[in-house]
Amino acid sequence: MEKMDVLKEDQFSKVWREGDWVYKRQHEFMTDNEYWFLCQMFPSGYVPDVEKLDKDLIRTKFIKKIPIMAGYKKELLDHVPKILKALKERGIRHGDLTRYALIIGEYGWPFLVDFSESRLWDDPRPSKRPEGDTYWLHKTVREMLNLNPITADFLSSGKS
Fold first, then answer.
1. What's the rounded Cα separation, in Å, for the pair 86 and 98?
2. What gap in Å lies between CA 22 and CA 159, rounded to an integer?
3. Domains of the chain, each with CATH number or no CATH
4. How confident is the model over 54-97, as pLDDT tens digits?
5. How far is residue 160's CA from residue 145's CA, in Å, rounded to a whole number?
6. What is the pTM of this model?
């Protein structure tokens, strides 16, 4: 039997790793929500394999985090507009694109996780992070790469 490594536990959810899988147990509604959005995004290549095991339990393939090497910085920056395009094409607002929702895997390939706060674009409920996915993904990637902080001028310039 493989050892269970608890990654996060609070009153709302528990996340743990067993071998090559990361398990997440949370309220049934949140599990349905997260599973649906992960399945919608799966063809983009920017989310890990996912399976729903029970009404309140999903598992995703474990992505080993790697340090961002200098050679992969440009590639990671090049993925930002592609990730945003994949979300937009599917009408998805991730809602929480912080360091904990973006994992950098082998060869600098980015993976999005934690879709429990996600909504469709036309969902009138307020987002956890009202600044939006564009702002938060740029901010998160720039922080991970130790680049200058993001500004409104940067976003309006159309740069990645």
1. 17
2. 34
3. 4-61 (3.30.200.20), 70-156 (1.10.510.10)
4. 999 999 999 988 877 777 888 888 999 999 999 999 999 999 99
5. 13
6. 0.85
